[in-house]
Amino acid sequence: MSNLKELTWEHHKNAERQEFVKELMSGDISKKRYATLLFNLHPCYNILETFARLYDLLDVRLAPSIHADYHELWNETEEYQPPLLPVVREYMDHIVSIQEDPDKLMAHLYVRHMGDLSGGQMIAKKVPGSGTMYKFNEDVKVLKEKIRARLDDSMAEEAKIAFTFATKLFKQMMEIENGSKQKH
Q1: Rounded to the nearest 5°, which phi and psi values hold at 124?
Q2: Blockwise average pLDDT, block size 10, the chain, 184 residues
Q3: Taking Cα atoms as reference points, which of 107, 101, 115, 95 lies closest to residue 152?
Q4: Phi, psi at residue 82, to the nearest 5°?
Q5: What are the sequence ranges of the domains in the chain?
Q6: CATH class as words, domain 29-177
Q7: What CA–CA distance (Å, rounded) separates 63 from 41?
Q8: Cα angle: 113, vertex 115, 121; to 5 degrees
Q9: Mind listing the pLDDT tens digit for each residue in 114-161?
Q10: The pTM is what?
């Protein structure tokens, strides 16, 4: 059994402590603000899951659900799209740089998908819209076990990088719309 959770605990906690996460968990996030998060998550998940499929790492695709959730919330008649945060391009470039290393890709799947399977289940009840990105075709416990079965302590450094990207995303979300929390 892997000790990855313990080896990455501080990085995980740092991501959870971000102000944006508190806003997300408060149940007081506007449709537009949450749609902006989804708009930025989609390319991250899409590239990660695309490369992960090449190695049969995990048969879970959240990118299409994230895309659907975004379109449910974002008014198509808006004159502009939400901003694409700088961290998204950095993350995508990083995933491209590790695309031939299934263990490193698995570390990112661990951080992203375990978060969605765990804390995401609480977030789903607090965000506007359907929250389909937090609904899985398979039992949550079974999916968690499938992920855990593929983990190895050697993935810790890459998982820390994944948490660092998540933290950066949350910080940039606060920077772009700080104070713009109109109710849905």
Answers
A1: -55, -30
A2: 90 96 93 95 98 90 96 78 95 98 97 93 93 91 92 97 98 77 37
A3: 107
A4: -65, 160
A5: 29-177
A6: mainly alpha
A7: 8
A8: 105
A9: 999 998 989 999 999 999 999 988 899 999 999 999 999 999 999 999
A10: 0.92
